């Protein structure tokens, strides 16, 4: 019965308006395939990566600076070449994408939790509470997002120089989530606008008359009806968060050196870019672009699919 229920749910979704929109959109299908490949390689890097790039016991300095296999001097053992420490670029991309995706998704989840909560409260309660939350949003938006994230990450690094990896990643996620341009502020403003519309609807007035508490009205009635714009915004913001993480790592205040992300790999390769070893920088950059573009295209498709005016 459970399997039949899952199949019927998949069948209904596949043949729904959103499923039809996905099936008839080559761009969405292509973006989904690219995103799936990137996520699959990152999640299962331990199983499919040809080498262990961050295991010092397996590295050989004689393998350093090897070009890609199709370039003269390259080796079939290292398809995309190696870096200055002899690490396989292809394997490093898989492990680096795992860190970037983990930080990106975690930042978006935290941003959604903070922004949706504050947006609901601001839109439903109104008055001084609404004015205070929105003024805080305005102040945060007045600063460039990357500078806010850089300030939080940099100050935390200076205060806790010997922090563990978990603390470093936690601070990185928090700094990206609190930044105005790609953080919780966007969700708070979006949810507030939708809540202002929903709170005047008949079903909310009926719930108030019957004695339902405001918290239950927000959680059970208003929240499910405003999740559409939040889902679209979250999909698009994943790419923004990944790029923000890569920027911070490139500047040296992101992922730790022993757990490098795509931004860290680009920073390492940038030192050798003008010496002719282009592959150390180009391939991590291409991986970052592929992830960001595919996620953005999926977000654009989802926005159009959930818009009833475009059906």
Automatic annotation (TrEMBL):
Localization, UniProt: Cell membrane
TM helices/strands, residue ranges: 27-49, 99-127, 139-160, 166-185, 226-251, 278-302
Any single biological process term in GO: transmembrane transport
Gene3D superfamilies reported in the protein's UniProt record: MetI-like
Domain ABC transmembrane type-1: 97-299
Keyword Acetylation: no
Main location class: membrane
Membrane topology term: Multi-pass membrane protein
InterPro entries noted in UniProt: BP-dependent_transpt_permease, MetI-like, MetI-like_sf
Statement: the UniProt record of this protein carries the keyword rRNA processing: no
GO cellular component terms, A-Z: plasma membrane
Keyword annotations: Cell membrane, Membrane, Transmembrane, Transmembrane helix, Transport
Pfam families the UniProt entry points to: BPD_transp_1 (PF00528)
The family this protein is said to belong to: Belongs to the binding-protein-dependent transport system permease family.
Protein name, per record: ABC transporter permease subunit
Organism: Caenimonas koreensis DSM 17982
């Amino acid at each position: 019965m459970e399997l039949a229920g899952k199949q019927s749910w998949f069948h209904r979704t596949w043949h729904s308006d959103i499923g039809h929109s996905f099936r008839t959109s080559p761009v969405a299908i292509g973006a989904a395939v690219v995103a799936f490949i990137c996520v699959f390689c990152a999640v299962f890097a331990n199983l499919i990566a040809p080498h262990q790039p961050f295991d010092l016991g397996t590295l050989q300095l004689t393998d350093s600076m090897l070009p890609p296999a199709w370039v003269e001097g390259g080796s079939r053992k290292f398809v995309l070449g190696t870096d200055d420490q002899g690490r396989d670029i292809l394997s490093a991309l898989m492990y680096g994408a795992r860190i970037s995706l983990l930080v990106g998704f975690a930042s978006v989840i935290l941003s959604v939790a903070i922004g949706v909560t504050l947006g609901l409260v601001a839109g439903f309660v109104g008055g001084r509470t609404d004015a205070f939350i929105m003024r805080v949003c305005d102040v945060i938006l007045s600063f460039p997002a990357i500078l806010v994230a850089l300030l939080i990450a940099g100050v935390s690094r200076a205060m806790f120089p010997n922090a563990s990896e978990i603390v470093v990643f936690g601070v990185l996620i928090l700094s990206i989530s609190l930044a105005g341009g790609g953080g919780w502020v966007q969700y708070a403003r979006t949810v507030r606008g939708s809540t202002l519309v929903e709170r005047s609807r008949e079903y909310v007035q009926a719930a108030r008359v019957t004695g339902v508490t405001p918290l239950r009205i927000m959680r059970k009635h208003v929240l499910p009806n405003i999740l559409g714009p939040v889902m679209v915004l979250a999909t698009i913001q994943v790419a923004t968060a990944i790029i923000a993480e890569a920027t911070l790592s490139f500047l040296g205040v992101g992922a730790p050196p022993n757990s490098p992300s795509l931004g860290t790999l680009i920073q390492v390769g940038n030192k050798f870019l003008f010496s002719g070893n282009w592959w150390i920088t180009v391939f991590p950059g291409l991986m970052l672009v592929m992830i960001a573009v595919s996620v953005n295209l999926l977000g654009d498709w989802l926005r159009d699919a959930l818009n009833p005016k475009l059906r």
